[in-house]
Structure formats: structure tokens, C-alpha cells
Amino acid sequence: MDRKEFFKVMTGGLTTTCVACMMAACSKDGTTPANPSGPTPNPTPGNNALLTVNLANQMLSVNDFVAGGGVIVIRIAAGNAVTSFTAFSSVCPHAGSTVVFQPQTQNFNCPAHNSNFNISGAVTGGPAGSGLTKKTVEISGTTLTVK
Asked: Among 6, 19, 80, 128, which lies 20 to 30 A Cα-Cα from 63?
């Protein structure tokens, strides 16, 4: 009996199961972070918007945020100027899981492998080797659009 056959007999196929479990643990996480402000889930077709937010009734205070459409947008200052907001892809650059914004600490965390990012999107810890992808914020009247 060769080594490969010996391990197969002795583990009863457990090795294959363990490999499948490890692959699932490192795959993309399909969950969506909490969304207290309720974004517009389907932006107007054709305008390249990833997310649209009505500033008349959403994101009224500093640290309010909206997550959806693969992005997270956060109010970082008062007023409805573009500079009052920041937006990033919600996809962790390490393994593609969804990051979560933590308003109390103004950090992003990836629950899959514990990468951490500051409010500027830069890596502050964990296995991620690069920061979050910055997105463009546009404002027209009381409509904020992330592209």
C-alpha cells in the first residue's frame, strides 16, 4: 500500500473534506453589512452609479453611512459638499469578502480574516496588502451618487 492510499484509508476521505472546508473559508463572503440609512438599491440604469442616496432624509449626521451596491459611503463632515463624504468599495482587497464600517471607531473591518482599514481606506492591520478602493462621490441638489 502506498502513502496516498494509506492516508485515504486511514482518514476515510477526511483530507478531502478539510481541503473543501478551507477553500470555503477563504472564498468571498456574500453577506452585506448593516445599512441603517437604506440606500437606493438599484441606481438609474445607464448613469454608472453604484449607489444613490437622498441627502434630504439620509446620512444627516457625521459618521452616518450607507452600504449597498458594493460600496460604503460615510458622512465625514457637516454640509452637503462632496468633501463632506467619503466612499470606498466594500470589497476587501485580501480575499474579496465584504468589509463593515464601524462608526464608533471610524474604521472598516473585514470579518473574514480580520483586515482593518482606517477612515481613509488605508490598511492598519491584518493580511490585506493594500487599502480599500476609493470611489467618486458626486452631489446634485440633495442627491448623492457614488461612482
From this structure: 128
